[in-house]
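My current task is to audit a protein record that another person submitted. Thanks in advance; the entry in question is below:
***
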Amino acid sequence: MGFAPIENERLSDKVVRVIMEQIKDGTLKPGDKLPNELDLADEFCVSRGILREALTILQARNYICRKPKEGTFVNPNISEVMNVSAGITLKEGTYSDLIEMRVCLEQRTVEKIIETASDEEIEELYDLISETDKKKGARSIDHYFHYRLAELSHNAIFMNFIDSYYDIIDEVVTHTTKNTNRRQEIYKEHCEIIQALKERDKEKAKAAVVSHLENVLQNIKND
């Protein structure tokens, strides 16, 4: 089993994503034991503190279980965790239902961020959207931003929800980020959300989220 070294930004998040990907693609199988913390931290080229933070997130999402004196294991029942999204497809006519669901969820998400996130965590969102805006592909632009919002809410239920609906969300994003103009619009809308978070203005943040998701839906309809 090998893990690529992790770059030097949001290290715990990246460790989480790499391990989740290896679980999803079968590299790590149900019940597999992960290397000990020291070896795993060395493989990822991160500190043990960063690694522990990542493992705590994975445990909260039920992807792994940690047994005293035994080690850390992939959840033997991981298929049940992942089956939340298994078999779900986004059929014609259901885009508006999905967006409506996201509106409800993400309005509460930004409220939680305003209540619990630090100024530094909110400021780092600018770095995230600047980085992803330079990359190609739908997932890079919108997906990571909204996933990060769920993480900053510090609510495991929100994170689990977003994770379970990865495939659906990515399908929506693919429809809305095909052209440069729309990518620029998304970048501007993300900036408006972040600015409202910085101002700790819940109503402004919720309005920015609603506006952004309404634009996502409108662009899907125009495709």
Observations:
- The CA atoms of residues 90 and 171 lie 8 Å apart.
- DSSP finds eleven helices and two strands in the chain.
